[in-house]
Amino acid sequence: MNRHRAARLARQLAIYLLIALVLAFFLMPIVWLFQTSLKPSRDAFAIPPMWWFSPTWANFERMFATTRVVEYLRNSLIIASGTTALSVALGLLAGYGLARHPSRTSDGLALAMLAVRMAPPVAMLIPFYLMMRDLGLLGSYPAVILLQSVLNTAFVTWLMRGYFLTLPKDMEESALIDGCNRFQAFLYVALPMAGPGVATGAIFAFTLSWNDFLLPLILSGRRTRPLTLGILEAFSSVEIAWSAIAAMSVVTVLPVVLIGLLLQRYLIRGLTLGAIRG
Amino acid sequence: MMRRTVRWWTRAGRVGSLIWVAPALLFMLAFAIYPVGYSLYISLFDYHLIDPTREQVFVGLANYVRAFGDQVFLVAIRNTLLFVVMAIGTQMLLGLGIAVLLNRELRGIGIIRSLLLVPLTLTPLVVALVWGALYNADFGAVSYYLKLLGLDIGRGPVGEPRTALASLVVIDIWQWTPLVALMLLAGLQAQNQELFEAARLDGANGVQQFLHIALPLLRPILIVALLIRTMDVFKLFDSVYAITGGGPGSATEVMNFYIFKTGLTFFDMGYAASMSTLLLVLISFFTAIYIRVIGRTEAYG
Amino acid sequence: MRRHILWSIALAAILAPTYFAAAQGPHAGTELTAFVVADRFAGALQALAPRFQDETGIRLNIVPQGYPELYQRAIADFVGGTAEGDLYSVDIMWSGEWAQASHLVDLAPLIARHADEIDVDDIMPVMWNLGGWGAQQIAFPLAGYAGVLSHNREVFEAEGIAVPTTTAEWQEVAARLTADGRHGIVMNGARGAPVAQDWMYYMLAHGGRLLDADGRPTINAPENVAALEFFASMFAYAPPGASSYAWGDRELAFRDGRAMMQMGWSTGVRSHNIPEMSQVVGKTAIGELPMLAGVPQANPFGGWGIGINRRSPHQEAAWSFILWLSQPEIRKEFVRLGGEPIRRSTLTDPDILAEFPWYVNVLKSFETGNGNFRPRIPQYSRMQETLGLVVNQVVIGELSAQEALDRAQAQLAPLFR
User: Which residue in B175, B224, B286 has the most chain A C-beta atoms within 10 A of its own C-beta, making it the best mutation to test that interface?
Assistant: First the structure.
């Protein structure tokens, strides 16, 4: 009995150790980032790496004093919100339609949507750039929002379709029998129940937009510059200001990390739901 | 009158779903399909945006011919495919392993899941910059510990042509394995435990239970994870841009990056468009394979 | 009499507002945006912007960008016709390309018109390379850089080593100094602009050139091949990661005291003596580019000009800034705040020399500066991209120097039809 117990204990220990190793691997770089943002520049690259140090706010102070970080933050927020609103609105409708009208065409459309997301942005970026130029929209918020929404709508559609497929039709059916048309059924019955699904779609759209770098690199202007571009300003020809990069990176990742942590249920659930229903 | 309206709106099939999808479809048509179509059109021209005085000459398939003769492009194709295989293969296996590891009674599973979530919410550019610093041959922490282990890292993980691409693969694995792991974990935890009980009573051990029950049940989620990740890996850009610039040599030149340079730094639009088309063809090929596989899964229900 | 007085008062009253307006400037209230590279002078410009606003009422936004991002942003702006930037910092090698494509306003007529105000003779002749192309001047000299050999004087003296003046000595010294975690030299090795531009110093040192007298490419000329072999061999004495280094990494290696020599631009010298940044404060000195025996001394010249976007709606206001910046007193302040000089008067100013004594060497370098060893032709970006790849491949041992330059020659020759 004792040997059995001991073996079990050893196994438990081994498992926890393994988990600790896994977590260490996945968290080490993030810890490094946060630490570097709090270290004075000279210690950023001390060898051997300093894991213990006395923190300072100097990097953040300098960032707020000498860069346009607040402006970039605002721009990131505007662009991400715009993309989220547009993608969710379009994706919600499309996903609902595809879920409630199953057919070969619907399945085809769903896959087509997914395929759009497969296309590398570069393929669309060049003609899109020309299009925005001809429309006089280069450098404006819509330029970035529109193309980001294209990619996000596809994904949100697919997510919402999966979500609505898991939602029982009974209440909508009874609403229809009561004389509502499809749209009213959607508005007053399905939509209120769609909260979690919408949350998932919104989180994904927001995250993807906030973290985007390539599209703003080409399409944004000096007034619409988001955080991801601001980080690159620290690369000069005389030094690579890692402390400055770290500080702005922290500001860039913190909001989405927090959102992710608070709303983690929706993130994973949304994806797995979509999977369960294909 | 109202009943007819109801019937029209609820008619299953093509028209019904189309109405709902219409806004999204129109939007995509305008801002996705049209640009892609235009891209195809430009690919048939010699179109240098940077030189407005130059005529746009129709050259037919000349750009495509040029692409296949372009050493750098061919290397880019190879690197992209290599990357996809290495990255996807590893993160699927690793993700599965972690999911299995966590699929048990654990204290603090909530916290573990939360912590595991963090990498995939990070900005890819930031991830690339952080890992670029860690990989630095002279003072990066990763290089330091590798040297401590006695390994000769030469010019560094991203400085040596042999290891550069693999080092970028590690970055992708680092950021996205948690996504696969958490999805698979959710799938595992949703599985009906009675199935496993029945199997155990029948004499099946843990491994057999896993292989013959858990894994097949996990298939839909595996496919989705595979799909999502493959889509994204083909679009690899941030780490190449931020760390290697395609080097050393052409070791990390990937298609997305090369097209970007050609089209948006040199504005050789026609040529870039042709390469984009080829990339799209490649991805469609993979899509087609996945569709067939998913189709088979749907048949299983 | 009273009538006269009344008229005078009336006239004064009418003219008084215009007096105040003149102090504000005719373009008061305009907002200008300048995209500049994130070199040291960007900070200086940012520091001067408020003063410019006080004096003229023009609000100036200086937006620093990384080097590749700046080029990208500029071309995207020009091609897109968006006039995002009214002013752009122009790297010396972009002169031909941007002039030919008419991206920027030709300042030659304006400079001629304001020649006295600008005191053109005070600006060192080599500076006009910063934006000059044929008869055009598409950018006004902003910051002149001299290519200098920075070295760790303290270690040199301790070991009794003389500063190398020939390439043979250079290699010898680098080898001798490489020991115990210390490296003799450091260079950019990263694929692309970094390695291409650094190699070009070494090409100049070997008497090589990328174009012949007729402007035709001579990429694989024997001197260039020798220079490339030399360059690649020097990596044996550089930190192992150097094959991925860009300018920031290279400077860091020198400032940390890990590398004893580096060939670089004079704008980096200042940071060698900033305590928060450097471990070698007061221990360094600069010298000239070591030359291959028999080749006359050449001095690399580089730097940045500042130009006006042809599509900018505020061209006059932009020109007023350039004019304002060119004044000797402002130039002096600009240099003090982190910029680099273009005027002889600045370079010989006692206050400046007291604070930055190495400008004596820099002045000498400017007098015989070669601003064309990196051809300022329209095809330069392509050339740099091609060389950036093959030179990197030689550095990491994938190609031989001859193969590499033969390839580059073959790829680039069609561009010069």
Answer: B224
